[in-house]
Every structure is written in structure tokens, then in C-alpha cells.
Design brief:
249 residues; mainly alpha; 12 helices; membrane; transmembrane helix; Derlin
């Protein structure tokens, strides 16, 4: 019974959020069980280009470190804000949400060629948080009961918290920068005079993730012959009136 309830709750999670967070958890468990090594997962442009280890382009976004506080902290924020984005501003637009993932991932990989970034999962989380915060500017936040602030300040609060944990701020800054680029070209630029939408979702993604609902077959009701409004056949009733009744009128 508990298993069925847990499975139902799991299937209620939006598809992109469910797939990404599940992949992150499975990757971390695989490392924890020594099935794979982090050295096989991190972003290394040399082995990607020369040895064609293309899976590193994906696994660099899936590993958040060994099981511990840092892993659970990142996964909570990833799951929470990824789901709120997919169920909020991207509701009914799963294909557009996938395009956001692809856009952010490609830009981060390009940055990783010039900045020494081994794992991009944390930067990806910050990007998601940044986009959500800019689309929910009036939401009041509470950070572990320590401070209250408006949603747009959340990425900066996380940046400060990351510094306290001793993490490199370059990862968070890359995520915030790419989140701002996406927010600008998707939410700001199209609203400017002469502006236009740059990111356009391919049709095959829309057909794959957002298929048009099938219209039910229309079955017309059978025509009711010789029936007048009200459902009473007055014509036939008049014909059936006895003659003596007509003489008494």
C-alpha cells in the first residue's frame, strides 16, 4: 500500500523534473556504490574531443557529490524550483521547458571550455532558481528562518551560502549569468519595441512533449420526426378528436 502511494506521488511529478532528478539520484547512488567513478563523469574537453567520451556532456550535470549535506541541499532546491517552474510558467509547455534545459546546458558547456568547471549540476540548479525568481518577483522568501526577502534575491542568498560552505563562487556566477541571459531573451526582449522571440521551440519537440488533444468523435443525435417543441404531437392529436366532441364545441 505504501509502495503504491509512493509510486502515485512519484508519477504526479511533472515529466522533465521527474526525469532529471531521478537521473541525478541514480548517478549519485552509482558513484556511492562504486559502480562508476566521478573521474568517468566530470567534464573534460580533451577526452570528449579526442576520445569521443560524449556521455560526459550529460553526466557533468547529474553528479552533485557524494551523499551528504551538499548533495541533499542541491537536490532539494533542484527538485523544488524545477517543479515549480514546470508547473507554473511552463504549465502545458513541456517542450518549451525542454528547450530551456537545452539552451542552458549548451551555454554552460561552452563556458566550461574557458572556465575550469568539472561538474555543472550546481550551476544548472542556480540557473533554474534564477529564472523562477525573476518570474515570481513578488513572492516573499524565508531562508531557514534566518532572513526574509523577495524572490529575486534568492540566487544571491544562495551564492552567499555557497561561500560559507567553502564552494567556488564561479559555479554559481555562471548559473546566474546564463539564467539572466535566458530571462532576457525570453521575457524582456520580446516585450521591447521591435523585439522578437529568439528561442523558438522546434515542431518535433512540440509534437513529442505537447501533443494536441484528440477531439472526441461527434455522433449526431437521431432526428426526431414529426415532433414539435414541447414533445407533444398536436397535429396527430387534432386528427384523433371524435366528431361528437367537435359538435359539442
Amino acid at each position: 500500500m505504501a509502495y503504491q502511494t509512493l509510486l502515485q506521488e512519484y508519477m504526479l511529478v511533472p515529466p522533465v523534473t521527474r526525469a532529471y532528478t531521478t537521473a541525478c539520484v541514480i548517478t549519485t547512488l552509482a558513484v556511492q556504490l562504486d559502480l562508476v567513478s566521478p573521474f568517468q563523469l566530470y567534464f573534460n574537453p580533451i577526452v570528449i574531443l579526442k576520445k569521443y567520451q560524449l556521455w560526459r556532456l550529460i553526466t557533468t550535470f547529474l553528479f552533485f557529490g557524494n551523499l551528504g549535506f551538499n548533495f541533499f541541499f542541491n537536490m532539494i532546491f533542484t527538485y523544488r524550483y524545477c517543479r515549480m517552474l514546470e508547473e507554473g510558467s511552463f504549465r502545458g509547455r513541456t517542450a518549451d521547458f525542454v528547450v530551456m534545459f537545452i539552451f542552458g546546458g549548451v551555454l554552460m558547456i561552452l563556458c566550461a571550455f574557458f572556465v575550469n568547471l568539472l561538474f555543472l549540476g550546481q550551476a544548472f540548479t542556480i540557473m533554474i532558481v534564477y529564472i523562477w525568481s525573476r518570474r515570481n518577483i513578488y513572492v516573499r522568501m524565508n531562508f531557514f528562518g534566518l532572513m526574509n526577502f523577495q524572490a529575486p534575491y534568492l540566487p544571491w542568498v544562495l551564492l552567499g551560502f555557497s561561500v560559507l560552505l567553502g564552494n567556488a563562487i564561479s559555479v554559481d556566477l555562471v548559473g546566474m549569468a546564463i539564467g539572466h541571459i535566458y530571462f532576457f531573451i525570453e521575457d524582456v526582449l520580446p516585450r521591447q519595441r521591435g523585439g522578437q522571440k529568439i528561442l523558438k521551440t522546434p515542431m518535433f519537440l512540440k509534437k513529442l512533449f505537447d501533443p494536441a488533444p484528440e477531439e472526441p468523435d461527434y455522433v449526431p443525435l437521431p432526428e426526431l420526426a414529426n415532433v414539435r417543441p414541447g414533445g407533444f404531437d398536436w397535429r396527430n392529436q387534432n386528427q384523433n378528436i371524435p366528431e361528437n366532441d367537435e359538435g359539442n364545441r
